Structure to design on (631 residues):
DNA sequence: TTAGGGTTAG
């Protein structure tokens, strides 16, 4: 057997890893040149590889170094393939693969390392055909049984969405080790076969913390967050090491489930056990707090972070916008630019939301145009939808329609829905009918489109059209999504679906609702009963307004959450105007902060005001829509 | 010197 003589890393080269800037690396480079160390091809290779792998921004420098070397070693070229596979230009890896294949040095031919890195490039590029060619080359060069290459191939096919190919590679492995098994488990989860992943997980004779994390990630990524938390609890009970990745995953599940208390527990655990605070973990915390409606805490974590990337900034900007703090979100965007962090398409979704919630149409338009003109980012459907929403909320319905008509791609349901919502807000029947027709053309069973148009007709007391629309819905089998609100009390999630009285404390809730009604009447509140009259579900007509799921959840919050704890409700539809006004008044009468997250954003109510937009609010009669910046 | 798990929107 051929023995490979290992050469230790030169101590000066080892120093490179402690460098934080390229400038420092260049100083070490100068020392190595002076000492003649780089004349040794092994040390030269180590030096180039360390520079290239340290940071992808160093790749140009590593390339220049390589250009001065006519006979790079296989190790050097493999390292360049590896570095480029992780960069923003992964296709450049193939340049070095070609160097290996066409090298003047006859001894150079690709090895198992080459393919381990090259398959990652294919995955990164989503290059299906190239991936198949690389797999062919793997077989041709005799590395199909190498466990590292096999793991890479499983990873590659998973990224390409080819689960059957993952199975083929995995089944070809003689005795797949823990790493390959975990890669396969992850592949099943990523490609939609989470139950098979779980079966594999349960049957594995040995698992380490990465396997556990992969299982949690699998559940979290397919939206089965509750099961993700179950696996996490099992992991804790079995005494498996929890690291920062476990924490990020569990936070992501908490965010989706809107379980702030559990999220807070994770944060406390991170601090108590000094879990390594990576940018990813910090971002997950910011995102969790913001999406659970605790924006103050989110910003506290944000400003406490030592390092922030585009994910962190986008999360915070979006979090502020989602909670109604539009101006603050735009200030933060300016801070981001000042710090030299390059925004991406997702950042602009957050920025446009920020403009939308405070009605800054001109500024929104400026940011939208800057996407392409300044940052070279092509706006996507979501960005167009947000612009329509922005014009619509500001009452500029004609401009919203013109904007839709100027879209370079076919307008989607989101764009037309934004217009339809604005038409409801501003009672514009003609445009509302156009928008509804367009939505139904794209999605014939879109219940929201029917309900909104029906509401517009009802605003005009056009009961004939309301009734005709109801019949169309019945004929087409369009069902209205029932309102559903959830509230977390003592770590337990309580769900209230409109019309459902099965909650064990429903009698008490009803009594509280009656008390609320009395208090509201005494305060001079007159409900806008229009929605009851034109509500299209028969069973919801009677008492519907006072039994909307969000009101029931708030009433339950009042009876079960003692002291000054804010009432946090999450609902599946947009909050109705009456519930919005009632929540505002309850916050004053019962001296309780209320935070409602609807399908669109958060609504904060305190002391009888909508937090952060009191001034705008005071200029309107309290039940009369539209309120710029509130809906 | 190589392989498996993580964050922003929708």
């Amino acid at each position: 057997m051929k023995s490979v003589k290992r050469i230790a890393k030169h101590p000066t080269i080892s120093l490179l890893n402690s460098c934080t800037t390229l400038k420092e690396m260049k100083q070490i480079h100068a020392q190595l040149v002076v000492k003649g160390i780089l004349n040794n091809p092994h040390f030269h290779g180590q030096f180039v590889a360390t520079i290239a792998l340290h940071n992808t921004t160093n790749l140009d420098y590593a390339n220049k170094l390589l250009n001065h070397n006519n006979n790079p070693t296989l190790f050097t070229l493999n390292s360049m393939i590896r570095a480029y596979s992780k960069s923003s230009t992964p296709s450049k890896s193939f340049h070095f693969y070609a160097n290996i294949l066409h090298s003047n040095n006859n001894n150079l031919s690709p090895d198992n390392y080459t393919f381990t890195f090259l398959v990652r490039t294919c995955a990164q590029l989503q290059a299906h055909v190239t991936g198949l060619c690389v797999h062919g080359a793997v077989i041709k060069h005799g590395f199909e049984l190498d466990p590292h290459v096999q793991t890479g191939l499983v990873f590659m096919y998973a990224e390409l969405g080819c689960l059957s190919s993952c199975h083929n590679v995995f089944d070809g492995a003689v005795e797949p080790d823990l790493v390959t098994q975990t890669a396969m488990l992850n592949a099943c989860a990523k490609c939609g076969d989470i139950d098979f992943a779980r079966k594999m997980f349960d049957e594995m004779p040995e698992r380490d913390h990465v396997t556990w994390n992969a299982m949690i990630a699998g559940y979290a990524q397919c939206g089965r967050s509750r099961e993700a938390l179950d696996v996490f609890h099992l992991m804790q009970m079995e005494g498996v090491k929890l690291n920062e990745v476990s924490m990020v995953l569990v936070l992501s599940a908490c965010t989706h489930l809107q379980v702030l208390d559990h999220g807070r527990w994770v944060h406390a655990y991170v601090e108590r056990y000094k879990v390594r605070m990576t940018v990813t973990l910090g971002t997950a915390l910011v995102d969790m707090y913001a999406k659970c409606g605790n924006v103050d805490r989110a910003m506290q974590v944000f400003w406490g972070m030592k390092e922030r990337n585009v994910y962190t900034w986008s999360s915070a900007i979006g979090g502020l916008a989602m909670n109604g703090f539009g101006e603050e979100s735009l200030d933060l965007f300016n801070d981001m630019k000042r710090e030299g962090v390059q925004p991406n398409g997702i950042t602009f979704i957050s920025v446009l939301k920020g403009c939308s919630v405070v009605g800054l149409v001109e500024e929104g338009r400026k940011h939208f145009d800057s996407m392409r003109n300044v940052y070279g980012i092509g706006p996507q459907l979501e960005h167009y939808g947000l612009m329509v929403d922005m014009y619509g909320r500001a009452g500029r319905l004609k401009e919203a329609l013109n904007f839709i008509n100027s879209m370079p791609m076919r307008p989607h349901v989101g764009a037309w829905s934004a217009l339809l919502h604005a038409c409801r807000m501003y009672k514009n029947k003609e445009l509302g009918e156009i928008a509804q027709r367009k939505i139904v053309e794209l999605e014939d069973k879109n219940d929201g489109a029917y309900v909104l148009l029906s509401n517009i007709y009802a605003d005009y007391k056009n009961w004939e059209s309301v009734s005709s629309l109801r019949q169309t819905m019945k004929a087409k089998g369009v069902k209205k999504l029932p309102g559903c609100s959830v509230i977390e009390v003592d770590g337990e999630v309580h769900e209230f679906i409109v019309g459902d009285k099965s909650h064990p404390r429903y009698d008490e809730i009803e009594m509280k609702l009656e008390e609320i009604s009395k208090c509201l009447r005494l305060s001079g509140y007159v409900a806008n009963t229009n929605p009851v009259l034109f509500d299209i579900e028969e069973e919801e007509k009677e008492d519907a307004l006072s039994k909307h799921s969000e009101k029931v959840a708030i009433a339950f919050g009042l009876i079960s959450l003692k002291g000054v704890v804010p009432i946090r409700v999450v609902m599946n539809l947009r909050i109705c105007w009456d519930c919005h006004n009632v929540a505002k008044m309850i916050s004053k009468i019962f001296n309780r902060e209320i935070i409602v997250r609807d399908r669109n954003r958060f609504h904060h109510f305190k002391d009888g005001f909508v937090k952060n937009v009191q001034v705008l609010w005071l200029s309107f009669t309290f039940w009369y829509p539209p309120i710029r910046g509130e809906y």
